[in-house]
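Work Package 4 report. The design task specified in the project plan requires that, given a folded chain encoded as C-alpha coordinates, an amino acid be chosen for each position. We show below one input record used in the internal validation round.
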Protein backbone atom coordinates (compact mmCIF):
# COMPACT_ATOMS: atom_id res chain seq x y z
CA UNK A 1 0.00 0.00 0.00
CA UNK A 2 3.06 2.22 -0.46
CA UNK A 3 3.18 4.17 -3.75
CA UNK A 4 6.46 3.74 -5.65
CA UNK A 5 6.96 7.52 -5.83
CA UNK A 6 7.07 7.73 -2.04
CA UNK A 7 10.32 7.77 -0.03
CA UNK A 8 10.36 5.89 3.27
CA UNK A 9 13.57 5.61 5.28
CA UNK A 10 14.55 1.97 5.92
CA UNK A 11 14.47 2.57 9.69
CA UNK A 12 10.90 3.90 9.73
CA UNK A 13 8.40 1.46 11.25
CA UNK A 14 5.04 1.27 9.49
CA UNK A 15 2.28 -1.22 10.23
CA UNK A 16 1.51 -3.60 7.38
CA UNK A 17 -1.73 -1.92 6.25
CA UNK A 18 -0.61 1.73 6.33
CA UNK A 19 -1.42 3.49 3.05
CA UNK A 20 1.02 6.13 1.78
CA UNK A 21 0.27 8.17 -1.36
CA UNK A 22 2.87 9.46 -3.86
CA UNK A 23 5.44 12.18 -3.25
CA UNK A 24 5.39 11.80 0.53
CA UNK A 25 8.65 11.60 2.52
CA UNK A 26 8.94 9.64 5.77
CA UNK A 27 12.21 9.99 7.69
CA UNK A 28 13.92 7.58 10.08
CA UNK A 29 12.74 7.02 13.66
CA UNK A 30 9.07 7.24 12.67
CA UNK A 31 6.31 4.89 13.84
CA UNK A 32 2.89 4.71 12.14
CA UNK A 33 0.06 2.51 13.38
CA UNK A 34 -2.38 0.23 11.61
CA UNK A 35 -4.96 1.61 9.21
CA UNK A 36 -3.45 5.08 8.95
CA UNK A 37 -3.58 6.92 5.64
CA UNK A 38 -0.85 9.39 4.66
CA UNK A 39 -1.79 11.53 1.66
CA UNK A 40 0.45 12.99 -1.04
CA UNK A 41 3.14 15.60 -0.36
CA UNK A 42 3.27 14.98 3.38
CA UNK A 43 6.58 15.22 5.26
CA UNK A 44 6.96 13.15 8.42
CA UNK A 45 10.27 13.80 10.13
CA UNK A 46 12.31 12.06 12.83
CA UNK A 47 10.55 11.45 16.11
CA UNK A 48 6.97 11.12 14.85
CA UNK A 49 4.75 8.58 16.64
CA UNK A 50 1.44 8.32 14.78
CA UNK A 51 -1.35 6.07 16.04
CA UNK A 52 -3.89 3.81 14.37
CA UNK A 53 -6.51 4.85 11.83
CA UNK A 54 -5.25 8.41 11.51
CA UNK A 55 -5.70 10.50 8.36
CA UNK A 56 -3.05 13.01 7.32
CA UNK A 57 -3.88 15.25 4.37
CA UNK A 58 -1.62 16.86 1.72
CA UNK A 59 1.03 19.34 2.73
CA UNK A 60 1.18 18.47 6.43
CA UNK A 61 4.59 18.55 8.14
CA UNK A 62 4.87 16.42 11.28
CA UNK A 63 7.80 16.50 13.75
CA UNK A 64 9.95 19.26 12.28
CA UNK A 65 12.44 20.66 14.79
CA UNK A 66 11.08 23.39 17.09
CA UNK A 67 11.08 27.05 16.08
CA UNK A 68 12.73 27.86 19.39
CA UNK A 69 16.12 29.54 19.64
CA UNK A 70 16.79 27.61 22.86
CA UNK A 71 16.48 24.26 21.10
CA UNK A 72 19.89 22.61 21.10
CA UNK A 73 19.25 19.46 19.11
CA UNK A 74 18.01 17.41 22.08
CA UNK A 75 16.01 14.28 21.32
CA UNK A 76 12.26 14.84 21.32
CA UNK A 77 9.14 13.50 19.65
CA UNK A 78 5.64 14.21 18.36
CA UNK A 79 2.82 11.89 19.41
CA UNK A 80 -0.50 11.69 17.54
CA UNK A 81 -3.23 9.50 19.01
CA UNK A 82 -5.48 6.99 17.28
CA UNK A 83 -8.30 8.14 14.96
CA UNK A 84 -7.01 11.69 14.68
CA UNK A 85 -7.33 13.70 11.46
CA UNK A 86 -4.67 16.20 10.41
CA UNK A 87 -5.88 18.38 7.54
CA UNK A 88 -4.00 20.22 4.79
CA UNK A 89 -0.78 22.10 5.59
CA UNK A 90 -0.92 21.57 9.34
CA UNK A 91 2.49 21.85 11.03
CA UNK A 92 3.29 20.12 14.32
CA UNK A 93 6.77 20.67 15.77
CA UNK A 94 8.71 18.37 18.08
CA UNK A 95 9.13 19.10 21.78
CA UNK A 96 12.14 20.58 23.55
CA UNK A 97 13.89 19.64 26.78
CA UNK A 98 11.01 21.27 28.68
CA UNK A 99 8.51 18.44 28.00
CA UNK A 100 10.38 16.34 25.46
CA UNK A 101 7.31 15.94 23.30
CA UNK A 102 4.44 17.61 21.52
CA UNK A 103 1.28 15.51 21.77
CA UNK A 104 -2.14 15.38 20.12
CA UNK A 105 -4.66 13.01 21.69
CA UNK A 106 -7.12 10.52 20.23
CA UNK A 107 -10.02 11.34 17.92
CA UNK A 108 -8.95 14.95 17.34
CA UNK A 109 -9.61 17.09 14.27
CA UNK A 110 -6.86 19.58 13.46
CA UNK A 111 -8.10 21.63 10.50
CA UNK A 112 -6.12 23.16 7.63
CA UNK A 113 -3.19 25.53 8.14
CA UNK A 114 -3.12 25.15 11.93
CA UNK A 115 0.22 25.20 13.75
CA UNK A 116 1.14 23.44 16.99
CA UNK A 117 4.47 24.63 18.34
CA UNK A 118 6.91 22.73 20.54
CA UNK A 119 5.72 21.14 23.79
CA UNK A 120 1.99 21.64 23.18
CA UNK A 121 -0.16 18.97 24.82
CA UNK A 122 -3.59 18.53 23.23
CA UNK A 123 -6.17 16.25 24.86
CA UNK A 124 -8.61 13.80 23.32
CA UNK A 125 -11.58 14.76 21.11
CA UNK A 126 -10.27 18.29 20.55
CA UNK A 127 -11.32 20.30 17.48
CA UNK A 128 -9.08 23.07 16.16
CA UNK A 129 -10.65 24.98 13.27
CA UNK A 130 -8.75 26.38 10.29
CA UNK A 131 -5.61 28.40 10.90
CA UNK A 132 -5.41 28.14 14.69
CA UNK A 133 -1.91 29.18 15.72
CA UNK A 134 -0.51 27.81 18.98
CA UNK A 135 2.74 28.98 20.52
CA UNK A 136 4.89 26.68 22.62
CA UNK A 137 3.94 24.92 25.86
CA UNK A 138 0.16 25.31 25.40
CA UNK A 139 -2.08 22.74 27.11
CA UNK A 140 -5.61 21.99 25.86
CA UNK A 141 -8.05 19.77 27.76
CA UNK A 142 -10.29 17.04 26.35
CA UNK A 143 -13.29 18.05 24.20
CA UNK A 144 -12.17 21.67 23.82
CA UNK A 145 -13.10 23.48 20.59
CA UNK A 146 -11.00 26.36 19.28
CA UNK A 147 -12.47 28.58 16.56
CA UNK A 148 -10.60 29.41 13.38
CA UNK A 149 -7.89 32.06 13.07
CA UNK A 150 -7.33 32.09 16.82
CA UNK A 151 -3.85 32.76 18.22
CA UNK A 152 -2.85 31.19 21.53
CA UNK A 153 -0.02 32.66 23.62
CA UNK A 154 2.76 30.42 24.93
CA UNK A 155 2.11 28.61 28.24
CA UNK A 156 -1.66 29.20 28.05
CA UNK A 157 -3.97 26.48 29.37
CA UNK A 158 -7.43 25.83 27.93
CA UNK A 159 -9.68 23.68 30.10
CA UNK A 160 -11.69 20.65 29.09
CA UNK A 161 -15.04 21.23 27.31
CA UNK A 162 -14.17 24.89 26.72
CA UNK A 163 -15.27 26.69 23.55
CA UNK A 164 -13.12 29.51 22.14
CA UNK A 165 -14.73 31.83 19.61
CA UNK A 166 -13.12 32.23 16.18
CA UNK A 167 -10.57 34.99 15.73
CA UNK A 168 -9.65 35.07 19.41
CA UNK A 169 -6.37 36.29 20.88
CA UNK A 170 -5.83 33.96 23.82
CA UNK A 171 -3.33 35.40 26.30
CA UNK A 172 -4.94 34.19 29.56
CA UNK A 173 -6.00 30.73 30.72
CA UNK A 174 -9.54 29.62 29.87
CA UNK A 175 -11.19 27.57 32.63
CA UNK A 176 -13.07 24.33 31.86
CA UNK A 177 -16.70 24.14 30.70
CA UNK A 178 -17.00 27.75 29.55
CA UNK A 179 -17.27 29.81 26.37
CA UNK A 180 -14.72 32.53 25.64
CA UNK A 181 -15.52 35.33 23.20
CA UNK A 182 -15.35 39.09 22.46
CA UNK A 183 -12.41 41.48 22.46
CA UNK A 184 -10.62 41.41 24.82
CA UNK A 185 -11.29 37.71 25.23
CA UNK A 186 -13.76 37.28 28.08
CA UNK A 187 -16.01 34.84 29.90
CA UNK A 188 -19.17 34.42 27.79
CA UNK A 189 -21.13 31.87 29.81
CA UNK A 190 -21.01 28.13 30.30
CA UNK A 191 -20.72 25.89 27.23
CA UNK A 192 -24.11 24.34 27.98
CA UNK A 193 -24.81 23.27 24.39
CA UNK A 194 -21.52 21.37 24.17
CA UNK A 195 -22.08 19.76 27.57
CA UNK A 196 -25.58 18.61 26.57
CA UNK A 197 -24.18 17.04 23.42
CA UNK A 198 -21.69 15.10 25.52
CA UNK A 199 -24.31 13.68 27.85
CA UNK A 200 -24.13 16.04 30.82
CA UNK A 201 -27.41 16.12 32.76
CA UNK A 202 -29.17 19.42 33.43
CA UNK A 203 -28.32 19.05 37.11
CA UNK A 204 -24.60 18.86 36.31
CA UNK A 205 -24.82 21.80 33.89
CA UNK A 206 -26.71 23.92 36.43
CA UNK A 207 -24.10 23.00 39.04
CA UNK A 208 -21.37 24.35 36.73
CA UNK A 209 -23.46 27.48 36.07
CA UNK A 210 -23.83 28.10 39.79
CA UNK A 211 -20.08 27.84 40.30
CA UNK A 212 -19.30 30.33 37.55
CA UNK A 213 -21.96 32.76 38.81
CA UNK A 214 -19.96 32.91 42.04
CA UNK A 215 -16.68 33.35 40.20
CA UNK A 216 -17.81 36.00 37.73
CA UNK A 217 -21.02 37.66 38.98
CA UNK A 218 -20.85 38.11 42.75
CA UNK A 219 -18.21 40.80 43.02
CA UNK A 220 -15.64 38.64 44.83
CA UNK A 221 -12.02 38.44 43.90
CA UNK A 222 -10.80 35.07 42.65
CA UNK A 223 -9.41 33.89 46.00
CA UNK A 224 -12.62 34.80 47.83
CA UNK A 225 -14.76 33.11 45.20
CA UNK A 226 -12.74 29.88 45.36
CA UNK A 227 -12.96 29.77 49.15
CA UNK A 228 -16.72 30.34 49.01
CA UNK A 229 -17.16 27.59 46.38
CA UNK A 230 -15.18 25.06 48.41
CA UNK A 231 -17.15 25.88 51.55
CA UNK A 232 -20.65 26.09 50.06
CA UNK A 233 -20.64 23.56 47.20
CA UNK A 234 -20.50 19.80 47.64
CA UNK A 235 -17.44 18.14 46.18
CA UNK A 236 -18.02 16.98 42.60
CA UNK A 237 -15.73 16.24 39.66
CA UNK A 238 -16.78 19.51 38.04
CA UNK A 239 -16.23 21.63 41.15
CA UNK A 240 -12.81 20.10 41.83
CA UNK A 241 -11.75 20.44 38.18
CA UNK A 242 -12.67 24.14 38.11
CA UNK A 243 -11.09 24.98 41.47
CA UNK A 244 -7.87 23.08 40.73
CA UNK A 245 -7.55 24.62 37.26
CA UNK A 246 -7.90 28.15 38.58
CA UNK A 247 -5.59 27.63 41.56
CA UNK A 248 -2.89 26.22 39.29
CA UNK A 249 -3.27 28.84 36.56
CA UNK A 250 0.09 30.34 35.71
CA UNK A 251 -1.12 33.23 33.53
CA UNK A 252 -4.36 34.01 35.32
CA UNK A 253 -7.83 33.31 33.94
CA UNK A 254 -9.88 35.40 31.53
CA UNK A 255 -12.21 37.97 33.09
CA UNK A 256 -15.88 38.73 32.56
CA UNK A 257 -16.73 41.22 29.82
CA UNK A 258 -17.35 44.51 31.58
CA UNK A 259 -18.92 46.82 28.98
CA UNK A 260 -22.65 46.38 29.40
CA UNK A 261 -24.03 42.87 29.42
CA UNK A 262 -24.67 40.99 32.65
CA UNK A 263 -26.15 37.90 31.01
CA UNK A 264 -25.13 34.55 32.48
CA UNK A 265 -25.07 32.92 29.05
CA UNK A 266 -24.24 34.83 25.88
CA UNK A 267 -25.10 33.36 22.49
CA UNK A 268 -22.09 33.03 20.21
Amino acid sequence: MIHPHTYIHPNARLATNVKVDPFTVIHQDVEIGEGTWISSNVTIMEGARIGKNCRIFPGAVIAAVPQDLKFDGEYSIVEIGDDTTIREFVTINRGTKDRGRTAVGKNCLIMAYSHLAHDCIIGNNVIMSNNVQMAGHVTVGDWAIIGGVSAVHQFVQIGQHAFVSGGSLVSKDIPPYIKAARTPLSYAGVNSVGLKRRGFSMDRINHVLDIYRILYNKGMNTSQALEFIEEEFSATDERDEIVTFIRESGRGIIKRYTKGSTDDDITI
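The first strand starts at residue 7 and ends at 8. Validation will be extended to a larger panel in the next phase.
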